[in-house]
């Protein structure tokens, strides 16, 4: 098969599955539906695995191909096409693998749901959309995938459409994402202004030349941009002008902030937990929310030339990483704890982007996809076993009852908190080291945030583990006795995700972080190359892990675990003490820094209020009653006279108007 | 054989004559047969329009399928028809909507059904006439004649407040077009020729252009409608029967956009450039201000009507932003955006008004608060409506995205601040569309009536599916449309970039 055929097959197989499941699902029945959709995703997965290893072991070069011209006029051509390079390949692997696991898991999880076929149709459609996003070779298709995953996310958050909280959450998610997209589309407009194209390849070529001017020619960044005629500015107000490159990068990043849920556009992600748990794993942990991180990494040739944008990325990521992690500590809903953890981990990835450690960001995206999907699916297994109980205060002592779920969750947790040798360690430790080495704006704060974040991550993760699986049960005795481990269709995907959660870092760390894997797809200016410094410690995966035991990061980790074990394990009354001493802090965290209140009571309310005001006063009072009234009064008086000769049939009026019109026309034409 | 047929005339006179015959015919006694004949003729008309589409050459900007006959030779007023890339998509849209209205919405008309059929046919003939006319007076006659059937449609089959709405509708649009007539006659007498081409080529002084520009503007701005002369539209929609709303939103509003492209830009290029900024600002107000107003609506039809005004803001923005653009490609993009937006809005707003009709036929209310949880009893309808709602919010992959994308990106090339306001539609459009959908469709069934609702029947489903397929097709492959329009758009850009003052 040609490369084009393979890529088309990878994209279209899930789409066909989604269409069959959506249109014929009821006729085909549950089993055929899930078989068809799983087959579709399996096809994509096989192709993704092949290309991942081709790029990992071989020396394949990037492929850029056009499928069809979406729009073309004048010298503008907007295409639908694929760019296949290492970055695409790794994203394809992550998306299709997690999607496949979630498809299989959902056979068990959604078993009794009335919308079974609809669910499989949606998740296959999601896989298609996400693949379109990561495989795109231009901004238009990127935006298509970007919005399409948003729509499927909307459909899945509101999957149980009778629940008020679900249909509130899905609208909120879509609208908040649209705020990000507002920035994104302006960024795309700027791209077209600066480069005259939407295609990646010519943009990267131009930026590649600019980069060579910097690295080989020793030019400062501004000069390089000026030489490439990329130093345009945008007038803001009066004499204030913004540099085009920074403007564009910030706009694009605003898009990323929506999709990857960065403060203050993070508010939709915790609410998205209203959706079924498998999609929380797939969409709201492993894949869709990482689209923003992917996009910035994809655009690294641009972002490298904007110190302002990088500084903004760093600070936003750092705030998200630290402060969202803190919120996770006080949550009691098992899924929301993991959701806040996801926010925090996304913050880590964004910090990595901000300090130009793009490959570290993508590597953390890679490992995080496995262990966070694992944690979500593990939580789902617990939820199912407890008949849809999500409050951790009603759990406890479950490790005996759910051994497979417990061990898998334990592996996921150890990976998440960054235990040496686990996958999360390799990616997270690299991010922390990279931010220590970085010198850009806010990198000091970022280092502080990601380092402190380690303690926080350990606290909320161990807390979850202890309260859910250890200690005495808080479930009713009779009910507790009936708890059973989930069926194999649920536990096997857990095991399949636990394996990469354990080994992915150890195996892939070196080639992905410091090898040549990303050489064609990510570009870093010499002066930003922090990973080079980190590489010095990374002689081998084993050494790096052993070195990890002596680093301050490890002390932070131990500190976090000790705090959690003391507070939540050995001495639960510490919780009450903690609550007394830190009451205002706890209140602040429980209120999630009042972001939700700000959104609902200020932003949303003032939007509706403005609509009312414009309508009642603008349209009705001023235009209709004010301006038009004068006119209508005259009309009324004329109408009352006409009424005397009325016949009661409207078309008589109409006829008279036409006659009048023709008469007027004749008069005007023939008068002179 | 087909080559010898005066196809363009048939597009106009076939529906018109059928309409007259239906009106004079046996009335509601032979309703079923009358309807069948009307649908059959309409299908023939649609087939003719598609045949023109197939035979249309996309390599030239010249008018094609030209027909010329004498009308008032002493004044050089001719019966002249022709079609170019700007008119063609609108004609196919008109013929399609005509079939869909006859198939889809006569069932909800309860009395004088044959007359409703006649009104629809008459309107279609006139609207085709507007798009095909090559002579300005012929154009004007169809432009005004088209009002009568619409006026009747709202007046006879409309809601309780129909008299107010018809009066407002008629006065607004009639008032607008009087100025256009004066301008046309002035120019025709100056040029000694009333053909549109002659008007486009005649030199006009700055003062003349200013007056003529404003005369045109009043006519077209009311029609499209632009802020602040838009308030007739929500009233007309609320009172109109479903079929009337569909035609009004899908086709009639496009007359304004078509007028800007056919007259304002090429006939008064210098004035268009002078006043472009005013129109850009008014367009942005339409997009942002009306977007907020739409959020506040409680009546489904008003909401979609206001959303139409906001969407038409993109048509006027795309049309007039070209004055601020330097590169020909960006200008093409802007005008392509305006045109695609018109076609797309025809499909999407048509589909939305059909959908509201489906709900209205069942519950006889248009208040959003009377609904809730419709998905429980009408899953197929809910799925289709979701597609239309997302198309209305400009989702990529649907036709609604293409025009907005082109206009936002091209206006960024003029000034990023224009794009900033235009791009707010991403948020506002999604807000009013999705909030509407949430309140009507999602949730538990609000009451027993909703629990017992029947899902769309075959007739309703077919109409909605046809529109859904076209909305997706246009979103996935807009190039089909772009190819047809590009030569004419390039020629239009040439005409509008050459000053009429110097010579």
Automatic annotation (TrEMBL), chain A:
NADH:quinone oxidoreductase/Mrp antiporter transmembrane domain sequence ranges: 136-446
Membrane association type: Multi-pass membrane protein
Organism field: Kangiella spongicola
TM regions (residue ranges): 6-24, 36-58, 78-107, 119-136, 142-161, 182-203, 240-258, 279-297, 309-330, 337-363, 369-386, 406-426, 446-469, 489-509, 553-582, 650-670
Gene Ontology molecular function: NADH dehydrogenase (ubiquinone) activity; NADH dehydrogenase activity
Protein name, entry field: NADH-quinone oxidoreductase subunit L
Entry's localization field: Endomembrane system; Membrane
Keywords per UniProt: Membrane, Transmembrane, Transmembrane helix
Domain NADH-Ubiquinone oxidoreductase (complex I) chain 5 N-terminal: from-to ranges: 70-120
GO cellular component, one term: membrane
GO terms under biological process: ATP synthesis coupled electron transport; electron transport coupled proton transport
Primary location class: membrane
InterPro entries: NADHpl_OxRdtase_5_subgr, ND/Mrp_TM, NU5C-like, Proton_antipo_N
TrEMBL record, chain B:
Record-annotated NADH:quinone oxidoreductase/Mrp antiporter transmembrane domain positions: 133-425
Molecular function in Gene Ontology: NADH dehydrogenase (ubiquinone) activity; NADH dehydrogenase activity; ubiquinone binding
Transmembrane segment boundaries: 6-25, 37-57, 77-102, 114-131, 137-157, 169-187, 211-233, 245-263, 275-296, 303-326, 338-359, 371-396, 416-437, 462-482
Locations listed in the record: Endomembrane system; Membrane
Annotated Pfam families: Proton_antipo_M
A GO term from the CC aspect: endomembrane system
InterPro entries: NADH_Q_OxRdtase_chainM/4 (IPR010227), NADH_UbQ_OxRdtase (IPR003918), ND/Mrp_TM (IPR001750)
Superkingdom assignment: Bacteria
Membrane topology: Multi-pass membrane protein
GO-annotated biological processes: ATP synthesis coupled electron transport; electron transport coupled proton transport
Predominant localisation class: membrane
Entry keywords, A to Z: Membrane, Transmembrane, Transmembrane helix
Xref: PANTHER family: NADH-UBIQUINONE OXIDOREDUCTASE CHAIN 4
Protein family membership: Belongs to the complex I subunit 4 family.
Name of this protein: NADH-quinone oxidoreductase subunit M
Protein source organism: Kangiella spongicola
């Amino acid at each position: 098969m040609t490369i084009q055929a393979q890529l088309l097959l990878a994209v279209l197989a899930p789409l066909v599955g989604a269409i069959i499941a959506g249109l014929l699902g009821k006729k085909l029945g549950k089993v055929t539906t899930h078989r068809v959709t799983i087959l579709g995703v399996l096809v994509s997965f096989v192709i993704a695995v092949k290309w991942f290893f081709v790029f990992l072991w071989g020396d394949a070069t990037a492929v850029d191909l056009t499928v069809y011209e979406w729009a073309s006029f004048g010298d503008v051509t907007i295409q639908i096409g694929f760019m296949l390079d290492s970055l695409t390949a790794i994203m394809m692997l992550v998306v299709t693998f997690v999607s496949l696991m979630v498809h299989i898991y959902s056979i068990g999880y959604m078993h009794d749901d009335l919308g079974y076929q609809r669910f499989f149709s949606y998740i296959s459609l999601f896989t298609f959309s996400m693949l379109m996003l990561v495989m795109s070779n231009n901004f238009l298709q990127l935006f298509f995938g970007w919005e399409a995953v948003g729509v499927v996310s909307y459909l899945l958050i509101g999957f149980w459409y009778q629940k008020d909280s679900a249909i509130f959450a899905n609208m909120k998610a879509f609208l908040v994402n649209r705020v990000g997209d507002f920035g994104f589309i302006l960024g795309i407009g700027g791209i077209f202004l600066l480069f005259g194209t939407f295609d990646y390849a010519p943009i990267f070529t131009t930026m590649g030349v600019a980069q060579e001017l910097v690295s080989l020619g020793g030019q400062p960044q501004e000069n390089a941009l000026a030489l490439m005629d990329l130093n345009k500015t945008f007038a803001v107000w009066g004499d204030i002008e913004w540099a085009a490159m920074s403007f564009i990068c910030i706009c694009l990043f605003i898009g990323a902030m929506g999709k990857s849920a960065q403060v203050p556009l993070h508010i939709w992600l915790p609410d998205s937990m209203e959706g079924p748990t498998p999609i929380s794993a797939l969409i709201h942990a492993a894949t869709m929310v990482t689209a923003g991180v992917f996009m910035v990494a994809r655009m690294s040739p641009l972002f490298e030339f904007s110190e302002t944008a990088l500084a903004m990325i760093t600070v936003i990521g750092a705030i998200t990483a630290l402060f969202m992690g803190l919120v996770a500590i006080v949550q009691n809903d098992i899924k929301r704890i993991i959701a806040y953890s996801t926010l925090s981990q996304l913050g880590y990835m964004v910090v990595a982007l901000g300090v130009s450690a793009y490959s570290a960001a993508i590597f953390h995206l890679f490992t995080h996809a496995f262990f966070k999907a694992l944690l979500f699916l593990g939580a789902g297994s617990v939820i199912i076993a407890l008949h849809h109980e999500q409050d951790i205060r009603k759990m406890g002592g479950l490790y005996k009852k759910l051994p497979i779920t417990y061990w898998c969750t334990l592996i996921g947790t150890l990976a998440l908190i960054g235990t040496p040798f686990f996958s999360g360690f390799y990616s997270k430790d690299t991010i922390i080291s990279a931010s220590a080495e970085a010198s850009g704006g806010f990198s000091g704060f970022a280092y502080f945030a990601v380092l402190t974040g380690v303690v926080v991550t350990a606290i909320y993760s161990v807390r979850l583990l202890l309260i859910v699986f250890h200690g005495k049960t808080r479930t009713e005795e009779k009910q507790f006795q009936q708890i059973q481990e989930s069926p194999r269709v649920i536990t096997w995907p857990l095991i399949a995700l636990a394996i990469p959660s354990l080994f992915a870092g150890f195996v892939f760390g070196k080639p992905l972080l410091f090898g040549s894997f990303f050489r064609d797809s990510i570009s870093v200016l010499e002066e930003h190359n922090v990973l080079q410094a980190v590489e010095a410690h990374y002689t081998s995966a084993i050494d790096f892990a052993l070195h990890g035991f002596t680093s301050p990061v490890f002390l932070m980790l131990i500190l976090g675990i000790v705090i959690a074990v003391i507070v939540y394990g050995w001495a639960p009354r510490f919780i009450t003490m903690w609550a007394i001493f830190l009451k205002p802090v706890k209140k602040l965290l429980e209120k999630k820094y009042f972001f939700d209140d700000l959104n609902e009571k200020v932003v949303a309310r003032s939007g509706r209020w403005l609509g009312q005001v414009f309508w009642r006063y603008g349209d009705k009072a001023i235009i209709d009653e004010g301006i038009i009234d004068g006119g209508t009064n005259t009309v009324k008086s004329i109408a009352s006279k006409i009424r005397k000769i009325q016949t009661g049939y409207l078309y008589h009026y109409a006829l008279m108007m036409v006659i009048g019109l023709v008469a007027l026309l004749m008069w005007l034409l023939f008068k002179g | 054989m087909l080559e010898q047929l005066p196809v363009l005339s048939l597009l106009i006179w076939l529906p018109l004559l059928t309409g007259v015959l239906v009106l004079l015919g046996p009335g509601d006694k032979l309703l079923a047969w009358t309807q069948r004949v009307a649908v059959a003729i309409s299908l023939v008309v649609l087939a003719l329009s598609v045949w023109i589409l197939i035979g249309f050459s996309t390599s030239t900007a010249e008018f094609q399928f030209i027909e010329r006959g004498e009308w008032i030779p002493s004044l050089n007023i001719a019966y002249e028809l022709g079609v170019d890339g700007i008119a063609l998509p609108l004609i196919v849209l008109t013929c399609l909507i005509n079939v869909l209205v006859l198939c889809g919405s006569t069932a909800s008309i309860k009395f004088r059904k044959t007359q409703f059929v006649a009104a629809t046919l008459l309107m279609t003939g006139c609207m085709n006439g507007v798009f095909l006319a090559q002579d300005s007076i012929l154009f004007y006659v169809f432009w005004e004649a088209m009002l009568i059937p619409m006026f009747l449609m709202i007046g006879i089959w409309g809601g309780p407040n129909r008299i107010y709405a018809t009066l407002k509708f008629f006065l607004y649009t009639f008032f607008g077009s009087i100025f256009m007539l004066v301008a046309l006659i002035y120019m025709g007498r100056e040029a000694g020729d009333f053909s549109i081409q002659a008007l486009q080529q005649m030199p006009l002084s700055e003062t003349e252009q200013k007056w003529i520009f404003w005369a045109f503007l009043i006519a077209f701005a009311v029609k499209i409608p632009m802020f602040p002369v838009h308030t007739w539209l929500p009233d007309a929609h609320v009172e109109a029967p479903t079929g009337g709303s569909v035609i009004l939103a899908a086709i009639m509003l496009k007359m304004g956009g078509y007028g800007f492209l056919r007259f304002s830009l090429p006939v008064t290029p210098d004035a268009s450039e002078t006043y472009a900024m005013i129109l850009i600002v008014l367009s942005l107000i339409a997009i942002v201000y009306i977007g907020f107003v739409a959020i506040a609506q409680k009546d489904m039809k008003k909401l979609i009507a206001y959303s139409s005004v906001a969407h038409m803001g993109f048509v006027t923005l795309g049309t007039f932003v070209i004055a601020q653009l330097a590169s020909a490609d960006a200008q093409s993009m802007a005008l392509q955006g305006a045109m695609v937006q018109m076609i797309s809005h025809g499909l999407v707003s048509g589909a939305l008004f059909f959908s509201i009709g489906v709900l209205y036929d069942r519950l006889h209310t248009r208040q959003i608060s009377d609904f809730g949880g419709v998905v429980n009893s009408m899953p197929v309808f809910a799925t289709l409506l979701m597609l239309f709602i997302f198309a209305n919010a400009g989702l990529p992959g649907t036709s609604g995205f293409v025009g907005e994308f082109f206009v936002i990106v091209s206006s960024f090339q003029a000034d990023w601040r224009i794009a900033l306001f235009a791009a707010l539609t991403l948020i506002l459009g999604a807000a009013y569309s999705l909030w509407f959908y949430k309140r009507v469709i999602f949730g538990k069934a609000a009451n027993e009536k909703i629990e017992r609702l029947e899902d769309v029947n075959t007739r309703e489903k077919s109409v909605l599916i046809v529109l859904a397929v076209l909305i997706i097709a246009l979103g996935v492959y807009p190039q089909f449309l772009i190819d047809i329009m590009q030569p004419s758009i390039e020629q239009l850009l040439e005409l509008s970039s050459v000053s009429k003052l110097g010579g």
